[in-house]
Amino acid sequence: SSTMSFSEAEVQSARGAWEKIYVDAEDNGTTVLVRMFTEHPDTKSYFSHFKGMDSAEEMKQSDQIRGHGKRVFTAINDMVQHLDNSEAFLGIVNPLGKKHATQLKIDPKNFRVICDIILQLMEEKFGGDCKASFEKVTNEICTHLNNAYKEAGW
To answer: Nearest-CA neighbor of 71 among 32, 106, 102?
Structure first.
């Protein structure tokens, strides 16, 4: 279904968990991407400017990776602000999914990869409760991004 069912308590705890990691959006966003590229090297093929960048250290210094890490976290932050408003949430998710499907042609499984790495980082930095508070959000994000792909004919 296209409506989301977050209780007020779930919204509040998810936002609290997200705020902890979003405070350092660029650094944490960069860490998430570098982990993805390191653990799933096939994902680097989508980013032509990463050619020749093999070490995690090189990647961490890259302005392009840092910029994209920040963009990813900013997009998720916009979604987190609208967990209690399905229409506004989908107004962010749908164009994003469509763009990645049609223009960028990114395999949608990579959204789950990124979300899992974010959850892993939350757990490492802030513990299991923080991760647990945000799990439902990542499931919603991935579900709705995948729906946008289906609608785009992926």
So the answer is: 32
State residue 134 phi and psi, 5-degree precision. -105, -10
CA–CA separation, 144 and 1 (whole Å): 9
Tell me the pLDDT tens digit for each residue of 87-107: 999 999 999 999 999 998 889
Q: Which domains does the chain have, with CATH numbers?
A: 8-152 (1.10.490.10)
The residues, any chain, with a CB within 8 Å of residue 39's CB and separated by 6 or more, are: 117
User: Quick one: which H or E segment has residue 13?
Assistant: helix 8-22
Phi and psi at residue 152, to the nearest 5°: -85, 0
| Per-residue pLDDT at 4 | 76
